[in-house]
Amino acid sequence: MKRITLGKWVTVSIVYMFLGTSVNVGAIEIMNQTDVLNNLVNPHVFKEPIIKNGDFSSGLDYWIVSNPGSNNPKLITEDGERYVKSTDGESIHQILKLKPNTQYIFSYEVAASAIYPGKVELGTLNYGELFHPLKEVFHNNEYGWEKYVFTFSTHQIEDTYAIRFASTGFGWATFKNIDAQKNTLLSVGVKDQQPLVYLNLSKEQFYSKERFIVYVDGQYWFETYSGHAYYAAKKSEEEDRIRVYKAFDGKQGSKIEVYTASGIPGDFVTDPKLLETYIVEKDLV
């Protein structure tokens, strides 16, 4: 994917809502402001969301607009709900603080013009570097809102990320209810006195041609691939999630791991990539 210079990402406004003040800084100074922000927020007071003000309930606070003097993008309120409308290639973006080697689930609602689609980009914006998009999604559903969900895995090293919502060409795009959550793949539970290990996947992950392989204490347990669960059961689908589960002994100290790997079920695993590890803290039954 090509590297681009986002010329309009030069001046940003970081709004400290809890102080009631606004500070304007150059884009290259964002890193220096991060330490100040961290020192001002008590981590025990609240859990800071990944996407700040994703419902636009506080206007455009925390969002950086591409053309702030033109009212484009602009905030619109309809039926008590707020959304942003962008036209003629303008955009909003937000700097994200994501953990290395971690998977996240991003979601938003969108409507956009058909000929010139709306565009969503997620990528790195490190100190002294150009914006490097790693994920691009285009939308041309001009007749109504659609919810879109995608997963994104961060690099193994620490990076600064940004997500951008834009119109293209002479078109328009609207966005609302933007959210991001850390994707916790593994969990455990008990049903009818039987301990269970759960693999929690997005629909995109479950139906993808990517193997998700679960091991318990170093032994192969089950896997998913292309919409199928192998040696495990699939729980009924929730809104954007699918849970696959299988019984295990549920003893304290049990180590559960989930990997991705190339190939298809039945192939020998030659290049596994560890995604997550879960240690059972106490006997489940």
From TrEMBL:
GO molecular function: hydrolase activity, acting on glycosyl bonds
Domain CBM-cenC residue range list: 50-159
Pfam families: CBM_4_9
Record's protein name: Sugar-binding protein
InterPro entries according to UniProt: CenC_carb-bd (IPR003305), Galactose-bd-like_sf (IPR008979)
Alphabetic keyword roster: Hydrolase
